[in-house]
Amino acid sequence: MVGSYTAAQSVPALKQFVEAGGTIIGVGRSAPDLASIFDLPVSNHLVERGPDGASRPVPSERFYVPGSVLTAAVDTTLPAAHGVTNPVDVFYDNSPLFRLDPEAALKGVRPIAWFATATPLRSGWAYGQSYLEGGILGIEAPVGRGRLLLYTPEITFRGQPHGTFKFLFNGIYLAGQPPAARVGTGDAAR
């Protein structure tokens, strides 16, 4: 909303910032864009294979969640999830979801939160909610001396601050901590 974004100027500046030790927190539809900019080993979870074997986005005739509260599993051993309950209720509005590519673990990309069930609906309407199972809605990724914290749903949505604002506040807090404080306390639960 302030300033202007250009790939030629903004992308190198973002990369330089993170590689030098900065933290970027991406929320909502910006999360997949940031994952792409930083060439993270993630892909779109909301795809299906066609008869020809090619992956295609799941069509809206089979999947539509227009603003509902869903339950997600959380790796509470990660500092980015400190104080977040497991499971946590998340406001979801046709948000994108990540799938970790095979080399993700080798590159240090870890899931923070994901849909652990084919029926995560708590309140609202979710047509085709089984497509959500296994989809990752929050990841952390080291980049140089810094890191990315990417959340695909709107974790700052006004109706869910108690459940998901902690992801944002933890990311802000951790950005000012030395690198040792940024490391998780255990293996990812996923």
Low-confidence regions? 185-190
**Which word captures the global form?**
globular
- Helix and strand sequence: HEHEEEEEEEEEEH
Mean pLDDT, rounded to whole units? 89
Q: Measure the end-to-end span.
A: 36 Å
Structural class: alpha+beta
What's the gyration radius in Å?
16 Å
**Beta-strand residue fraction:** 25-35%
**Count, helices:** 3
Major sheet attributes: 7 strands, mixed
How many strand units?
Answer: 11
| Helix residue percentage | 10-25%
List keywords for this structure.
single chain; 190 residues; alpha+beta; 7-stranded mixed β-sheet; two-stranded antiparallel ribbon; 11 strands; globular; disordered C terminus
What does this protein structure show overall?
The chain has helices at 7-19, 30-37, 161-175; strands spanning 23-27, 42-44, 47-49, 55-57, 66-74, 88-93, 98-100, 110-114, 121-123, 136-143, 146-151. With 190 residues, the chain is of the alpha+beta class. The strands form 3 sheets. Strands 1, 5, 6, 8, 9, 10 and 11 form a 7-stranded mixed β-sheet that branches. Strands 2-7 form a two-stranded antiparallel ribbon. The relative contact order is 0.23.
